[in-house]
Design a protein that fits this description.
The chain is of the alpha/beta class. It contains 16 helices and 16 strands. The strands form 4 sheets. The chain has a 7-stranded mixed sheet, sandwiched between helices. The chain has a 5-stranded mixed sheet with strand order 5-15-16-14-13. A two-stranded antiparallel ribbon has the order 1-2. Strand 3 and strand 4 form a beta hairpin. It binds pyridoxal-5'-phosphate. Pyridoxal-5'-phosphate binds next to helix 8. This is GntR family transcriptional regulator. Keywords: DNA-binding, Pyridoxal phosphate, Transcription, Transcription regulation. GO terms for molecular function: DNA binding; DNA-binding transcription factor activity; pyridoxal phosphate binding.
């Protein structure tokens, strides 16, 4: 099924397309085509959407139809549009691009691209030995069918032990192994949320979690996080919970993505108590819990304040170890694990045994790996902060005490325009609006510090160069309301 975008809708998305950076002396049709490509590149305009008829868009933009015809022709030539006579034109992906894990496009030949769209580290050196050791272990499993819907016992034991060590006694039958944290969230939502069910999320939040909620047709209410060090405003969060009484609350208390905030123990306790009082189940995403920096002490796990099985914790191997493993987990009550396993057989049956064995071997040497990751991340974060202070001093950043990202407050509502301009100079960015629901957050940009320090410094240099070009191209301005007299 192809959805359609009307002329006025596309015009709204395009905003100040004629004043976008990089415009310089290009003709209107090329600027329009470039702006549509920009919307596709940052995910604001989906693939497979039917664009408005040329006349409809020309009217909405108050430009000539010839300009729209020429822009559509250019988009067809660059492989961003497919047309059939009588049926219209759809957005598409050029054959020379692939889709990155973050949902953004990457041209196949862009080896020099510095990708700040993905907040994840390359694999640690311990991965290959772990994979070899896992292959040695595999024969123990080969006499069975290989389906383990809740995961192999060795891995569930190892994960349960890590929770217990964090002060949250956990038995292996409270753990279900998944194909990553994202999969864990999707499975939990399948069980906890009927279509149209209410969910409270932080704003900004992790874009793929928002996508999972949209896929379950959740009715989403957002709760705004402050950009400064405090992050959560307790009264506002608890007040919103009491007022909205959502079925589910999805929170990232441990070095929140994208802001890097850490929720204090006292608020964890109050959120859990309030959630219980209003009948909300909490899904607590602990993706970054292993990555405190600067010796920051971690508050107790959110689930340790739970007396009523209201809190489901999800986490995984991706951030401290490697995203390519696709191993995550859910911690909940043992009966709930059984219900999740029953739901799972209709989805993907179980996780690969070999990958689970690799995870077991990595967890065996976790302290050494995680210590090296933290040291590496602290150096990279400081290099990024130093480059920002030197090249973009008007941006405001709060130093994150953990995790892998910082959330920069920019000097204007330029995040999407900046991401488009940065792409031209070989830096991929995830602009602020990707972390919200309604196209706001244009004053913010998430910057991960998962690339080597030299790459981060180089990327900031390139971003700073195009930042100042934006000014020369004329900053997008908010339209003044038209007065009708
Ligand atoms: C908060 C959060 N949850 C979940 C995920 C997805 O993790 P996984 O690779 O384990 O599916 C990420 C990845 O960036 C994340 O930041």
């Amino acid at each position: 099924m192809v959805s359609q975008v009307r002329g006025v809708q596309l015009a709204r998305l395009l905003g100040q397309w004629h004043a976008l950076p990089g415009r310089r002396r290009s003709p209107d049709y090329a600027a329009l085509a470039g702006a549509v490509r920009g919307l596709l590149a940052d995910g604001r305009l989906p693939l497979g959407v039917r664009l408005p008829a040329e006349r409809d868009l020309a009217e909405a933009l108050r430009i000539s139809r010839t300009t729209v015809t020429a822009a559509y022709r250019e988009l067809r030539d660059s492989g961003h549009l497919a047309s059939r006579r009588g049926a219209g034109s759809w957005t598409m992906l050029p054959g020379t691009h692939r889709v990155a894990p973050n949902g953004l496009w990457i041209p196949l030949d862009d080896r020099d691209m510095l990708d700040l769209g993905v907040a994840a580290l390359a694999a640690p050196p311990e991965l290959l030995p772990a994979a070899r050791a896992a292959a040695e272990d595999l024969p123990r499993y080969l006499s069975g069918a290989g389906y383990h819907p809740i995961g192999i016992i060795e891995l569930r034991e190892a994960v349960a032990q890590r929770y217990t060590e964090r002060g949250l006694p956990t038995s292996p039958d409270q753990i279900m192994v998944t194909n990553g944290t994202q999969h864990a969230l999707d499975l939990v939502l399948r069980l906890a949320l009927a279509p149209g069910g209410g969910v409270l999320v932080e704003s900004p939040s992790y874009p793929n979690a928002l996508a999972a909620l949209a896929a379950r047709r959740a009715r989403i209410t957002t709760y705004g996080l402050a950009a400064d060090a405090d992050g959560w405003d307790a009264d506002l969060l608890l007040g919103t919970l009491r007022q909205v009484r959502p079925r589910v609350g999805y929170l990232i208390p441990d070095f929140q993505n994208p802001t890097g905030h850490l929720m204090p123990a006292e608020l964890r306790e109050r959120v859990v108590a309030t959630a219980h009082a209003v009948g909300t189940d909490l899904v607590i995403d602990e993706s970054f819990v292993d990555l405190p920096l600067d010796g920051t002490d971690l508050p107790p796990p959110t689930a340790s304040f739970d007396r009523h099985s209201r809190v489901v914790s999800i986490g995984g191997m991706s951030k401290p170890f490697w995203g390519g493993l696709r191993i995550g987990w859910i911690r909940t009550s043992a009966p709930q694990v059984q219900r999740l396993a029953a739901a799972r057989v209709g989805v993907d049956m179980s996780s690969p045994v070999l990958d689970q064995l690799v995870a077991v071997h990595l967890l065996d040497v976790a302290p050494a790996i995680v210590a090296a990751r933290r040291a590496q991340l602290a150096v990279q974060r400081d290099a990024l902060l130093g480059a920002l202070a030197a090249r973009l001093p008007e941006w405001r950043v709060t130093v994150p005490r953990g995790g892998v990202t910082l959330w920069a407050e920019l000097d204007g509502p330029i995040s999407s325009a900046l991401a488009r301009a940065a792409e031209e100079v070989g830096v991929r960015l995830a602009p602020g609006p990707r972390f919200g629901l309604d196209g706001t957050l244009e004053r913010f940009l998430r910057l991960p510090f998962t690339l080597p320090a030299t790459d981060l410094v180089e990327a900031v240099g390139r971003i700073a160069a195009v930042r100042y070009d934006l000014d020369r191209a004329g900053q997008p301005r908010w339209r003044e309301p038209a007065v009708i007299a």
